[in-house]
Amino acid sequence: SRQELEHRTKEIKKSLGKELFIPGHHYQKDEVIQFADATGDSLQLAQLSAENKDAKYIVFCGVHFMAETADILSGPDQEVILPDMRAGCSMADMANIHQTERAWEKLQDLFGDTVLPLTYVNSTAAIKAFVGKNGGATVTSSNALPMVKWAFTQKERILFLPDQHLGRNTAYDLGVPLEKMAVWDPIKDELVYSGELQEIKVILWKGHCSVHEKFTVSNIEMVRKNDPEMKIIVHPECSREVVSLADDNGSTKYIIDTIENASAGSKWAIGTEMNLVNRIKDQHPDKQIISLNPHMCPCLTMNRIDLPHLLWSLESILEGKTNNIIKVEEETSHYAMLALNRMLAKK
Ligand code: 13P
Ligand code: SF4
């Protein structure tokens, strides 16, 4: 039963003590997050991985790219474990290293040495390594603005992988007009743009988040029509149209903090993953909170981590045969760390 699973999980956590560290992303299920030693958005979880040197076992409750980042930033004697290897990220899967190398070659032909690559942390370690090798950095949804600003002090143009929406929303906020942004299509191997080629400042990889694409302009229109007093806050992985019509946007931590600081009785429609929306709703009975899309939007891969998988990982540690170890190969790790450190150094 659920109670037995919870009881056993508590027991093992207690017996492993400081040897064990469980970071949990805000999109994790309640049944999992209750056992997290720390929760956070992607930036906070990356920082924690770099700081925690005590734990021998880091059981990462999140998705594969986050566990890879934790491995890259953790010490050589620490083991990062992902409770279910199927917990990937469809966005990260939209950019592989071969496609990226092909794109880079074409961009060098078109623009010479004027492009700096940046990658959203929601990407494979191989992509982070590619970016690190080429002088670029990682970004998260909570530091994309200063990171893109920094990138423009380095080079005339940026290639932003793999989320076109975070890239477009951020560049737009920095004043780059849409006609100076192009989209690289990794399936057709082609650059799509409407303005002048040499005027292009931002090349957006054609990737997106399958959860956040479900929040639409018509969802916003519906909320505005039903209740004009309701505020709309969305994650910047939503499209430009949705972000521009919303009242506010930001990372998971930003969304949590904004609702936390809002006045009692305020009304909010939130455009982000379902587990987080439900949790915010439970934690703020004094506020009226709904999902921007009335059909709650789950991240299927985040949800692969459930209590049985978490417990299974903990049991395997106790038995001395840890499963699902995430170990990024040394050279990849070295270059990916350059990209991550260029970001972490700016905090
Ligand atoms: P943040 O928690 O950094 O906002 O990231 C959201 C996300 O989609 C993680 O996969
Ligand atoms: Fe990937 Fe989107 Fe799920 Fe985050 S919410 S892990 S970006 S698919």
Automatic annotation (TrEMBL):
Its EC number is 2.5.1.72. SUPFAM superfamilies: NadA-like. Keywords: 4Fe-4S, Cytoplasm, Iron, Iron-sulfur, Metal-binding, Pyridine nucleotide biosynthesis, Transferase. It holds the Pfam family NadA. It is found in: Cytoplasm. GO terms for molecular function: transferase activity. Iminosuccinate binds at residues 25, 42, 120-122, 141, 235-237, 252. Its cofactor is [4Fe-4S] cluster. [4Fe-4S] cluster binds at residues 89, 209, 299. Pathway: Cofactor biosynthesis; NAD(+) biosynthesis; quinolinate from iminoaspartate: step 1/1. Binds 1 [4Fe-4S] cluster per subunit. Its main location: cytoplasm. Catalyzes the condensation of iminoaspartate with dihydroxyacetone phosphate to form quinolinate. NCBIfam families: nadA, PRK09375.2-1, PRK09375.2-4. This is Quinolinate synthase. It comes from Heyndrickxia acidicola.
